[in-house]
Design a protein that fits this description.
With 261 residues, the chain is mainly alpha-helical. The chain has 11 helices and no strands. Helix 2 runs antiparallel to helix 3, helix 5 runs antiparallel to helix 6 and helix 10 runs antiparallel to helix 11. The longest helix has 33 residues.
């Protein structure tokens, strides 16, 4: 009988192999693949707004959060299955590869920097061209929903956003981990869906998703400046994402299962 999933030690080994490959990509490919991943995460954000923000809180309790969180995972499904480079996911797979000596730390930095840039460009493209110029969310309840998301993300305290970023990428990288563990596409989809739905419904902070949500709100007139976005949200969420994925998934699982391999 063929086993449909990998054991934890096998996941670590596969992650190390994937991470090594990612560090050897050219800068041009990292930028283009990063652009695609940023756009895919923004697609997830777009469908989440289109579905979740159309449900008012009155009489529906947490249904809006459930729908918002339940539709957002399409973004990571596209990233993992179609193929692209996502900064947050790479925190979890490149780190153990470097710790195992199979990839170089300079390659990790190259990947993170240029993928991050590509993610930002892709997210902004979808936010401005597909979200704003198309006027998808120009009327309430979507307009107020888009503006409210942006305001909420820049008015939380630095350490609140940081720790929400830790929780977010802990779950995101576990989603990637589960996708790596599966040997079939259906298993990958289910492995991705639950952790991503969880982090979005909880209200954790994903730096790449925020590259879509906050600029979209700015484009639609939210009282938010670019400086507030970069300093109050993107910086702490990025730092938290690095710890959440790089330490709580990549480092701990390498320490538990990868050191003997």
């Amino acid at each position: 009988m063929t086993v449909g999933f990998k054991k934890p030690g096998e996941i670590v080994d596969s992650a190390c192999t994937i991470g090594k490959t990612k560090t050897e990509e050219s800068i041009a490919r990292l930028l283009v693949l990063g652009f695609l991943a940023g756009a895919y995460i923004a697609f997830g954000g777009t469908v989440a707004i289109a579905t979740g923000k159309g449900i008012t809180a009155e009489g529906f309790g947490g249904l809006s959060k459930l729908v918002f969180g339940g539709t957002f995972p399409v973004g990571l499904m596209l990233v993992v299955i179609a193929g692209s480079e996502l900064f947050t996911g790479n925190c979890g797979v490149i780190t153990p590869s470097c710790l195992a000596g199979r990839a170089k730390w300079v390659g990790l930095l190259k990947n993170w920097v240029f993928v991050y840039i590509g993610n930002f460009i892709g997210s902004l493209f979808v936010a401005y061209c597909l979200g704003y110029l198309s006027n998808l969310f120009g009327k309430d309840p979507y307009l107020s929903g888009v503006q409210g998301i942006a305001v909420g993300k820049v008015t939380a305290g630095f350490w609140q956003v940081f720790w929400r970023g830790v929780g977010c990428n802990w779950l995101v990288c576990l989603a990637v981990w589960l996708a790596v563990s599966s040997n079939d596409i259906v298993g990958k989809i289910w492995g991705i869906w639950f952790p991503i739905m969880a982090f979005v419904a909880i209200g954790f902070e994903h730096s790449i998703a925020n590259m879509f949500f906050v600029p979209l709100g700015i484009f639609y007139g939210a009282p938010v400046t670019w400086g507030q976005f970069l300093l109050n949200n993107l910086l702490p969420s990025t730092l938290g994402n690095i710890i959440g994925g790089g330490f709580f998934v990549g480092t701990i699982y390498w320490w538990l299962y990868g050191r003997q391999s």
